[in-house]
Structure formats: structure tokens, C-alpha cells
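Tutorial handout. Part one gives the primary structure; part two gives the three-dimensional structure as C-alpha cells.
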Amino acid sequence: MNKLLLIKNAELFQGRNYLNKKKNYFEGWYFKNTSIQKGVSFIPGINIDDTGTKAFIQIITNNMSYFVNYKMNNFKFNDNPFCIKIGNNSFSKEDININIEDKSQNLKIYGNIKFSNSKNINTNIFAPNIMGPFSYIPFMECNHAIISIENTINGFININDETIQFNNNKGYIEKDWGCSFPKSYIWCQGNNFQKSNSSFMFSIADIPFKLYTFKGIICDLLIDNKEFKFTTYNKAKLVECNIREDSFNITFKRPPYLLNIKSKDNKGLKLVAPVKGKMTKDIFESICASVQVTLKKEKEIIFSDTSNMCGLEIVQK
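Part two.
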């Protein structure tokens, strides 16, 4: 497939040229689904290292996380329409169908969730996705894309005989691909605000770039369909950055706007991230964090609300 077409349609499987090569690589999609009090995220993906090519699905809920291995011949992809299949599970922009049984983990999950009213961030030729012009650089260790910053979800997931029901709730879809996750980063996403119809995500990461490393910023806040973007490439600055093991207080500035995001006391569950293609890095994520978001235009507060059921990862060196 044409490389520019893949960049423009980041949800598609980017790693097709690596499948027959002995090159370190990973690719994973992230489907986050939350009701008012409960949530479940699925991370289907593949990784390639010196031991071979493997597929997997990671699952995280409010209080449990799982890693399920699959042989690579269980991984299938389709471009039009986009769909990823791993075993008896399928993932697309329209729905996900889950049927997992792993006796070694005493795990049984099944269900279906349908997506509608999907919203994406604004894109153009300069910024085909949230990474902006960095999307075109072929040697980035980790690429990131927002597939749907918000969608409406309906359906259910049953996990070990406990059902999570979704009735016009909120979902989110993103993905990562490359060879390694950043050595240190913070990532947060939320769309269950108490007083408004809003969604946001942000990430700050140490990005290796040839002979040096820089702190990369990506942040998108959607308030009633109006988008506010704070990124390295649109000259946003990080003016406050207090990060601890389970909390943070961060402020971005892009005149005339000032965006403050803060959270505290969030305990994560273990997931696994790639290092040179190998799924060996333990990270910890919560999908039920509470985050306060405040946007000012000069000195006037134009938005202030709390988002519950947020996804949050804090990874420090």
C-alpha cells in the first residue's frame, strides 16, 4: 500500500512490510470503553523480536489487567473496511467483538460493543494526525495516532460472569507503532466530564531524535466540537510540569491560551510495553482516574471541569 495513504489512514495496519523481516517492531490499537463508574480497555497488537512474531490482546478494567498471547497465524487485517482480527476477536471503527477464554488466568471474556457518532481531531496535509509533521519521519521510535477522540458506545462486556453494560456511553480509540515506547512519559485521556460534553488527551514524552532527545508534547481538548490543540509543532510550551508516581500538575501555554491539567492519587494496574520490539517493559495504567481540566484565555477561565474514568499512565526513568 502507498506509504502516504497509510500515514493519512493511521488506523490501518502499518507494519505489513515488517511481517517477513527480522526487525524489531510493535503495533497496538487501544480501545477504551467507559460507563459512569466502570470501564474496560482492549489493546490488540503484534510484536516482532529475535524470538519471532507474535500477537496479543491486553485487557484492563477498573481493578484487573490481563495479557493474552496468540500465535501470529491468529492475526488478520483488512483495509477496506478497516478491521483487525486476533483469534475469535475483531476490532474496527464500528464495533468490537470479544470472545476470550484463557484457563491459565481463569479468564473468560465475551461481548460486543458498537461505536457511533465518532469524532476525530482536525487534520490537514501538514498534520495528518496528532503528531503533525513528525508523522512523516520514518525513524521515530514510537508513532502515535488518535483514531477517534470520542464516540458513543452501546453494548456489553462480560468478564468472569460480571457484566459491564454500555448505554450511550463514551469511547476512545488510538494506536501506537514503532520499535519502543518512550523511556519516560505521561499519558492521559478522558471524555466523561461532569458538566460538559468534552474530551481530551495529552502526552508528554522524552523523544529520541537522531543524536539528541527532546520533550514532545501532544494535547487535544475538544469542548462542544471546538478544538484546542497544544503541541510541540504548534509552538505550545510546557510551563509547569510536576509529575509524581501517582499524580501530576501540568500546564501548557499557547498564547492566548493556558491549559492546566491535574490529578492525584491514582493507582495503576500492570500492562506490558515494547522495548526494541520485545514486550518486556512493565507500565502501570489506571482507567478510572479523576482529572481536573482548566482552560484560560489570557486571565479569563473559559472552561473548568472534572473528567472521571480517565486513562492514565505515568512512566518515569
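Part three, for discussion. Residues 3-8 form the longest helix (6 residues). The longest strand covers residues 278-297.
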